[in-house]
Design brief:
Layout lengths: L1 E2 L5 E2 L10 H50 L64 E2 L2 E2 L13 E8 L17 E10 L2 E10 L7
Antiparallel strand pairs: 1-2, 3-4, 5-6, 6-7
Length: 207
Amino acid sequence: MCIEVGLRPVPCPAPQRGVTLIELILFIVIVSVAVTGVLGALRLSTSASADPLRRKQALMIAEGLLEEVQLAKFTFCDPLSIEAESAAGSAACTIAEQFGQGGGAAAAQEPVGPRPYDNVNDYAAVAGAATAAFDINGVLSDAAGAPMALPGYTVRLTIRPEALGGIAAGNTATDVGDVLRISVAVSYDGQTLVLDGYRMRYAPNLP
């Protein structure tokens, strides 16, 4: 009870209460941590939901370009060589098939042309080296030479002789063997998707 001089006793007014500076600082810290956690979860969810789309796009690119290479011919001679249907090996070819375009025997040179190339090993200048075989003037392009409107994707192609099922691997520039392993690597957003395929010389004397 509060007593006023000359007056009767009266109840004391309730003391005023508030938030201390320490409590305010703790509140701000707790809310900040909570908001940071929520934003991090949202960012992770957003990036994860977009990633499958980018990966599917990369897979479609790899499948399409791998199919282009696998559909090319694989003969001892260049298809334009007159011995293409009769040669039993690269030595019998006027224009022997080897890695890269423009190679061949001294009697004639393999003609250089645009994609799609007439033989599988025309897509790689050197066995086992990754090349930008699908780029035209530094831009990823399709077989018709039209740029692919796919920013953020880069593609590298590797072709190497491979031993498979008892078939020995070729080991020289002109002897590419009867089996080639084709690897298409699509890079995007700091990731790389690699698709492998094989091409066998199942009809060596046919162009």
